[in-house]
Amino acid sequence: MKIMKRPNILLTGTPGVGKTTLGKELAQRTGLTYINVGDLAQEGQLYDGFDDEYQCPILDEDRVVDELEDRMGDGGMIVDYHGCDFFPERWFHIVFVLRTDNTVLYNRLESRGYTGKKLQDNIQCEIFQTIYEEAMEAYKEEIVHQLPSNEPEDLERNLDQIVQWIEQWMKDNN
C-alpha cells in the first residue's frame, strides 16, 4: 500500500443527520476532496434496479467501490454515505457516525418529503443505532466515533474537532 500524505475520512449516519453539510464545509476548510456517494452513483448510473417500496434506486455497491478505488488510494478523501459496511476497511483512517435527536431528524426528513414507511424506518434506524453498529462491525473500534448533529453549534464543534484530527494525522504521518 502506498503512503498517503492526507487521510481518508468516512462520514456516515442515517439520512438527514447532516453528513453532506459537514462534508462540504470540511472540504472547504481542509482542501480534502468531498465525495457524496449518492451523487456519484447518480452521475455514473451505478445502480442495480429500483426499490418500489422506498421509491429509490438500489445502489450497485461493487460498482461504487470500483469507481472509487483509485481515488481512495491517493488519500485526502471525505466520503459521505448512509451505509458503510461495503467499503473496504483499508480505505479509511477514521469514521465519523453522525447522530441526531429523533424529533430533529423527523422534522428534517419530513421537510425532504419522506413519508410513511421510509420516514418511520429511517427514524427507527437512528433509534436503534443501526449505522453506528454497522460501522463498529465493519471497522476497527478505535477509528469509529459518534458526533452529535442537532444544531448549528454541533456543526461548528464537529468541524473544529475533525480539522484538529486531520492536522494531527498529517503531523504524525508526514
Report the radius of gyration as a whole number of Å: 16 Å
Average of the residue pLDDT scores: 96
- Strand residue content: 15-25%
What class, by secondary structure content?
Answer: alpha/beta
Helix percent band:
40-55%
How many helices? The count is 7
Along the chain, the helix and strand elements come as EHEHEEHEEHHHEH
- Give the overall shape: globular
> What profile does the largest beta sheet have?
5 strands, parallel
The largest beta-sheet arranges its strands as 2-5-1-6-7
Please count the beta strands (DSSP E, at least 2 residues each): 7
Distance between the termini: 15 Å
Flag low-confidence runs. none
InterPro entries: Adenyl_kinase_AK6, P-loop_NTPase
Keywords: ATP-binding, Cytoplasm, Kinase, Nucleotide-binding, Nucleus, Ribosome biogenesis, rRNA processing, Transferase
Subunit structure: Monomer and homodimer. Interacts with small ribosomal subunit protein uS11. Not a structural component of 43S pre-ribosomes, but transiently interacts with them by binding to uS11. Interacts with COIL (via C-terminus).
Protein name: Adenylate kinase isoenzyme 6
What are the key terms here?
7 helices; two-stranded antiparallel ribbon; ATP hydrolysis activity; cytoplasm; five-stranded parallel sheet; Adenyl_kinase_AK6; ATP binding; 174 residues; alpha/beta
